[in-house]
Each structure stands twice: as C-alpha cells, then as structure tokens.
Amino acid sequence: MDERKPYIDEIKREFPGDVLSEDTSTPGEAYLTIRKESLPRIANFLHEVRYSTPLLSMFGTDERALDGTYKVYTVFQIPRKPVFIILKVHLKEGELEFPSITPLMYAGSPFEREMQDMFGFVPVGNPDTRRMVLHENFPKGIHPLRKDFSYSTTLDKAEGQYPFHTIEGEGMLEIPVGPVHAGIIEPGHFRFSVAGEPIINLEIRLHYKHKGIEKLMETLDFNEGCRVAEMVSGDSAIGHVTAYCQAVEKIAGIETPLLARYNRMIALELERLYNHIADIGSMSTDASFLFGAARAGILREKVMGLNDRLTGSRFLKGLVVPGGVTRDLFTAREDITLTLKEVGEGLKELVAILLSSASFLDRVKTTGVLNKKTAEDLAVTGPPARASGVDSDMRRDVPYEAYGEVKFKVPVYKEGDVFCRLSVRIDEAFESISIIEQVLKKAVRGPIKAEVGARRAVPLPYRYALGCVEGWRGAILYWIMTTPGDKLYRCKIKDPSFCNWPGLSYAVLGNIVPDFPLCNKSFNLSYAGNDL
Amino acid sequence: MQKMILSWLKGRIATKDLKELVSDARLKDCLEVVNNASIEEFRRLSRRSVHIREVDAGSCNACELEINALNNPVYDIERFGIHFVASPRHADMLLVTGPVTRNMEMALRKTYDATPEPRLVVAVGGCARDGGIFKGSYAVVGGVERVIPVDAYIRGCPPRPQELLYGILRILGRI
Ligand code: SF4
Prior knowledge:
The structure holds 2 protein chains of 2 kinds. By secondary structure, chain A is an alpha+beta fold. Among the domains of chain A are: 5-124, Beta Polymerase, domain 2 (2-Layer Sandwich); 222-367 and 399-408 and 424-496, Cytochrome-c3 Hydrogenase, chain B (Orthogonal Bundle). Helix content of chain A is 39%, strand content 17%. Chain A is built from 18 helices and 15 strands. Chain A has helices spanning 5-14, 39-50, 64-67, 108-119, 213-217, 225-229, 237-252, 258-286, 290-311, 333-355, 358-364, 372-377, 383-387, 394-397, 418-440, 497-507, 516-523, 527-531; strands spanning 19-23, 29-34, 55-63, 69-77, 84-92, 97-99, 122-124, 172-177, 189-195, 199-205, 320-321, 324-325, 463-471, 474-482, 488-494. A 5-stranded mixed β-sheet of chain A has the order 1-2-5-4-3. Chain A has a 3-stranded antiparallel β-sheet with strand order 8-9-10. In chain A, strands 13-14-15 form a 3-stranded antiparallel β-sheet. In chain A, a hairpin with a 2-residue loop joins strand 11 and strand 12 (324-325). The longest helix of chain A has 29 residues, at 258-286. The radius of gyration of chain A is 23 Å and the shape is globular. The model of chain A has no long low-confidence stretch (mean pLDDT 91). Chain B contains 7 helices and 8 strands; from the N terminus they run H-H-E-H-E-H-E-E-E-H-E-H-E-E-H. In chain B, strands 1-8-6-4-2-3 form a 6-stranded mixed β-sheet, sandwiched between helices. In chain B, strands 5-7 form a two-stranded antiparallel ribbon. In chain B, strand 2 (50-56), helix 4 and strand 3 form a beta-alpha-beta unit. Chain B starts with a helix and ends with a helix. Classes of the chains: A alpha+beta, B alpha/beta. The site of iron/sulfur cluster has 12 residues of chain B, from helix 4 and helix 6.
C-alpha cells in the first residue's frame, strides 16, 4: 500500500473542502494544493496537533510561466517515515498576501521573511516584517527570485539602518559583535542584551554572505548545478551535492548503481567524521582545553589527507555527480581502513582524556541548554536536536542511498546542553567509522555511474522532486523543479543551519557571555549555507 | 591524565617539516604577486613576527577551514612567528576570502581602514580573485580588488594549507 495514503486521507477528512487537488507523481512525496486560508490550520495540524512533524522547509516559486501564479510550498516530514507532505498554495499576481503560519509555529518565521524579500510575498500575521536576506544596501522593491529579475542585474546602492530589537531597563547593556569576528570564522552579527553577566536576549543577524546562489542555479542545467551545490557550504560539500543529485535523479528517473550508492555513503561519513572531530576540538578550544584541540586537529588532518588521496580534494569535491560518482573509492579500501583505524584509536584516547578532565566537564555540563519543546518548535535538526531529545535522523527515517543495509545507532540525549551536543558528535563519529567499515566489506562490481541526460524525443514537462540527506549538521533539503529542457527552473536549498540559528539564540539565554563561544561551537552552524 | 598527555607528547609530535611541506609539486603556481613594490617595502619594515587578520567577505567557508588548519599542530604557522589576531588594528596583513558580497562590502572596507600601515592584502581562493563562480551576481560586488587594493593572490578552491603556508612564507621572503 502507498504509505502516503492514510495521511492524505486524514487531512482531507479533517479539513473538508480545503484540499483542492493532490499530486503523488513523485515517489514518497504528497503534494496537496490547499485553499490559501487553510494553510496555518493544516500546517498546525501536521506540526503540533497530530504528528508533531517538523517543518522541513518553506519556500516560494514564480510559476507564472506555467499557470500564471506564484506558489508557496510548505514541506513536512512524517516523523520516522519516508513520507513528505507538501502543502501548496497558489498566489495570484497582485494578491501576494497569504496567512502566516508563524503565530502557530515559530519555525515558519525565517522562511516567510525570506519569501518576503525574495518574492515580495506578504505573510499576513507574521510579527516580524523586517528585511532579512537583502540588507539595507539593496534598493526597495527588488525581488531577486522573481522570473522577471535577471541574475546579473546591477543594482544601485541604497542606505538605511536595520531596526534591531532593543531591550531597555536599568543596568541593561548591549554588546554588538561582528560581522567581522575575532576568530577565523564566517561573518554575522550578534547583538547581546545583558543584565550583568547573564544574556537576556541574543539577536542574530545573518545573510552577510548572500551571493544569490538560488538565482544562480536557475541559469544552469541540472548537470552544472552540482558544482554549485558543492559551494553552498564548503564543509558540507558532499551532503549538499548528494541531496542535490538525489532530487535530480528522482526527476530524471535515474537509478544510481549500488556501487555508487556505497561510494556516496563512504564520502558522507568521511565528511561527518572530519567535521565532528573538528567540533570536538573547537569545543575544547573554547573551554580553554588546548590539548584537546591540538589532538583533534591532528586527527582531523589525517581524515583530510585521506580525502585528498582519495579524490584530489580535501573536501571530497568532484566526487558526487548526477547518476553516481566519478571514481570508485573501493580501490583504496586498504588506505581507508588503515587510516580510520588510526583515527578511531586516537579519538578513543582523546575522548577518554576529555571526559576525565573535571575542569572541562565543568564548562560543558549544564551550559547552553536547549529544551526539547523549543527544539521542536523551532524545527531544529541534527546533533543539536538529538542532544535535546528529538529522535530523528534521515539516514534511518528515509533510508536513502543504501543506509538501509548498514547498522548504526542514532544517539539521542535529553539534557540539551553543550555536553550532550558534544556527546552526540562523539558517538556519531564512531558510528561513521563503523558505517564505512561495514560498507567496505561489501563486495560489489559494476558501473559507478548511470547514464544521465540522454536526449529525449519528447521533452518532459516541468517536474519537481525533493532530495534529502542527513548531513553532519542535520537535514539538508533540496527541492528542484526543472524545465522541459532540463534547466533548473527553481532550486530551493535548505541548510540545517537555517533552522538551527534560532535554536542557538534560545540556548544561550541565561548563560554568561564568556560561555557564548562554547555554545556557538557546540552548534557550529554554517553562515554560508544559511545566507545562500 | 597527565601521564596520557606526556606519553602522547613523547611519541607523536605531528608537525611536518617545512621542507616536506613545500616539496609538493602542486605548490608551483599557487601564488600570484600583483604588487611587488609594496611587498618589498613590507619585507624591509617587518622582519620578524607578522600578525594576520582574516576576513571572510562571502566565501563558501572551505577557504576559512583551510586557513584555520594553519593553526593546527601539523602546519603550525606560529612556529614562523606568524600569528592570527582578533582585531585589524593589531594586524600587518589581511587575508581575505570569498567573492565580496554587497552585504559585506562595507565591513571589508572598514576592516581595511582599521588596519595600520604598512599592511599587505592577500586574497585567498578563486572567489577572491574575480568572484569565481559567483561573478556577475546581483548580490556580489566581485573580487577583493573591486573593494580594496590587493598585493597578492593565493589560488585554489580552496588552496590547501600547505599552499597557504607556502604563499605566505614566499610573500614574506622567508622561502
Ligand atoms: S574559492 Fe572555492 S573554497 Fe574558496 S570560497 Fe570560493 S568556492 Fe569556496
């Protein structure tokens, strides 16, 4: 039986007359076109009332060329099931208002503000109507993702001041930080309101790195897009390009060969491994435990060196392409096994040292708590979600590639503090090594890439699909729509950071400012992936 | 715990020899010097320790990770007296990455203005050269030179840590 059916039926039953049409042509995805007014109610039903499904993404499209309307897509995933419910709302030209879901689910706010900037939609009821992506230097009335706006438009310079929230009162102090930070990190602005030491409010302003990536995608065909996907967030190159390729492959109806799937899993886990090790190191740095940082630096370097030997890129770029992979990592089986053995042993030693240091534990325990309810409300994903008791992992819930064939644990902790986020990363690093070992034991032969893009006699119509990968930061989601000529018509990218940034601003509340770097590192979010 | 740390220190010092690092054949053309005069002048005035401020003007963050790696015990750039600092006011050199986005243009210019002379600007990565793949975007100003004067480029996407190390040491006339 189609797994999607019971959910579709239930929504139709609960909201008679609100579902105008359904489309189940893409496997695993149910697109329900609903009446505009019913969006908040149905969204809330999925999110809170019935399934507590996280909001995975929400985005606009300009489909005026197809049927004369703009659309708003709201993507949910049924927890622990490979079922995506996508609510679709049509907006007619000149009637770009739609009822905001934010009053019922806060996670919607950044998505709606993004659509407001990029398409000029008006989310009626969202209390925060400030600009987000386009800073004040962009002239008013510019909406880059509309089809009548060209990627290479030269814009004038405007001026203005961003209206930060201010918290006033006796003894209140504001600490502005950034966009250029003290360390070697990406730009963003943090504004702390403190009363004495504790943080009362943290406002995070991002999008300093907005480069127009989604618009760039619309100038490319679907083979070219994978190069850009690798540059969305360099430290998640493989996660992003794999999610991208999955969406493209679904659209083109390509079955990737098994060997390619195994190769992608190895790459995905290597990526998780080097990043988690780096995070373990940087959490040590920010707890002033430099030995841990040094040791982790060496271990990470071993994995980066391995990546370089395997693919010629320390970030494994160029490996994953639509249809499969460009080289077979199984030929370097021995190198991988030996390196990972060394890394695994080193990591065990490092973890033993970290966890026996009272002063280190004192810094990380009970620091920066994100509670489960907040994590769910904000649709936080990945290690920070699992550290707060949210049991979700796309590798297990939507077993893509060949994750269904390997055994691994999904670590879930309850307290939601820095220590839990550290623990999730430590556990996952060991699981990654084990997954790669299991995959390497598989004996497969055959091609590493399926044929893509053979000329079709009859061009296919506009098609769309989701690609979803559990990156090391959490769920990476791509929604791609292609034109009949295999051009990318729309490519919505959602990096896990997009929903995790608000999580950070809640986790730091009540903590002292000197603990902020530690909280920040325990989330370790991407600015580039958020800003696009 | 102390015992564990000591045993580690004894057996496994990770730092790679400079000779070994710069013997990599791929290093050959990672450096492009565009302003020889200012580099000569800088070398004359700053013979020893050099402080660097890193500015990300819109990168994909892989360039940052490689610059960060310079501080790990394998590359250990501090052994050459090169130190990354928190403020441009303490810096002798700016390492700038990424295509400069519209939203970062002002911050980059202000950082440059806050850096005392003599100062060098080294642009890192293909994006910093001319905008790379993001060249021509409505949201991107372009390469670093569109905003501040650049003295040298270190190529790569991203340049490996050994390439960065090699480039910086070459600029400083150390190798
Ligand atoms: S040069 Fe390459 S690695 Fe560096 S910021 Fe640009 S895309 Fe990223």
